[in-house]
Write a structure and sequence with these properties.
Shape: globular
Helix content: 25-40%
Radius of gyration: 16 Å
Oligomer: single chain
Number of helices: 6
Number of strands: 5
Largest sheet: 5 strands, antiparallel
Strand content: 25-35%
Distance between the termini: 19 Å
Strand order of the largest sheet: 1-5-4-3-2
Amino acid sequence: MTKWITALLIIGVLLAGCGDDEQTNSANSTNDGEPANTMTQDTHTASDDQSEGVTADEKSTTNNEAGTQTGKAPIEEAENVPADEKAAILAVLDKQVESFNNKDVEAYMSTISETPESFNYEEEKQYVQKVFDTFDVSMKPLNPMIIKYEDETKTANVFMNMESTSKDLSTGKEVSQTTRQIMVFKKEDAGWKQISLFAME
């Protein structure tokens, strides 16, 4: 099964660098300079309804890109986000990135919902630990912005370009890349938690 965390995107490129043509085509699709026509969900199997629901704005932008000759359509920040909620959401993102870069699995998992969409929380925890044991990885979100906010459902879509570097501890091979992605957060009793991640091809 495919794991949803950003580390997968890093590792995918690292493996692609070893010469697997099929993986190369997939992993490098975010860096080929062409407008994207589709989106790939890097989560465990999710329904089409879920995918449509959380990525409608970005999917619309992607479709507009396909018909644009001059480049990618601009990503616009949602205007209905309360200032305190915006600060809280971006603080959780900051904590997630910091704990990931520090290989602090407990802190990292504390930013993720224990009832996420389309994957198992405990399996993800084990996978993240395996990633930390195998790679030196770092992430840096570039210009994150909330592009969709639903007050009724208390959900928010955060778009960013994620700059990442990965070094295989066993081989020393290092790869850097930048991917366009959307993190979906939901407000729970314990605060904002991530429930899904979507990456653009």
